[in-house]
Sequence to fold (426 residues):
Amino acid sequence: MLLFTLIVLAILVCLAIPVAAIMGLLGLSLNAVYSPMPLWRAFGEVSWSASTEYTLVAIPLYILLGEIFLRTGIAESMYTALSKWVSWLPGGLMHANIASCTLFAATSGSSVATAATIGTLALPQQQKYGYNERLFLGSIAAGGTLGILIPPSINMIIYGVLTNASIPQLYVAAILPGLILAAIFAATILLRSWASGDYAREVRVRATWPERIASLRDLVPPLFICFVIIGSIYTGLATPTESAGLGVVAVLGLAAARRSLTWSMLKACFEGTMRTTGMIMLIIVFAYLLNFVLSAVGLTGAVNSFMANLGLSPFALILAVVAFYLVLGCFMETLSMMITTIPIVAPIVFAAGYDPVWFGVVMMILVELAMITPPIGVNLYVVQGIRPRGDIVDVIAGVIPFIVAMLVMIALLIAWPGMTTLFLDR
Fold:
């Protein structure tokens, strides 16, 4: 049964069929071959149950928040301010890329939106100041993945729904690992610039101390949005869904204060939100249908029994899970990868004694890796699409140091699992 599933999945992926259609066709194929009952008759009820999950309301709200944040010019002001503070370091504006991605991730919840936004702002600077093009592109693609880990994260909401893990605890647990990963990215740029000698050839963005101090006001809006969202969750004043609504209200207030709150801007934000939400929800609904079929035909139970009978130690099991997702991430879109595999993998990991919140953070980093590993890494194509010229090989080569950095981060989480509970224990 597992072999049949993998063969059908590989064929559908090679045909370049949309992700939602792949999951639907795979579910129907398994139903036709292995189920004595017409499972498709329950698809309506399963679809309704999936699409009316209250927690998922946060997804369009966070997407809308990111759209407004981008179109009001707040993101551009933020990038300019950060470039004045960090461009003196070896690697220059590449540190501004990472810092901007970190701050933008704390408002958007989307990796693609983070990479696209910061990439649009940063790429003209690469050509102007003559930075190492490949590493510069890699810093944008890898920095964009922080949108998955740093709260509010859309992928983390989906993980919480799939595993019944506490989303507020997931958000709080991911703060420190997210900041540490951003610091590791910055250290990667620093070491790479020194080792290659690019540091001597880089042109610096000059800024006086009065200019730097004055630029701090441009960092207030993103920090304020972050405080509203994370602060309301951490203090218990709001659920993740309610905090998303508060974030949208706050960013609308900032847009009004900047005199950029117009009907044309809102229309563009609503259109972008509807397109992205429609795509995500279609994938979620069809993934739920596929998971229903997998459980009904017994594939989920068979995989669980197989893993249990291997007799792996907890450490060997988590290494096997990491290796599994490293390979799978090269060939499968991240959202569908999460929704189709977590219901099978998570119970095995939890049974081995691992904490659901800790595994959620590890899972987000594995999804981040899938976003920048060829041939299907989405952020690679997002950054390539922004470039006026050049081959995608440049982007792929640029992310290699950051892939190593993410593997180091996973090793740190395995060695120090208490990293995720440091704020939860307070």
Q: What stands out?
A: The chain has a mean pLDDT of 84.
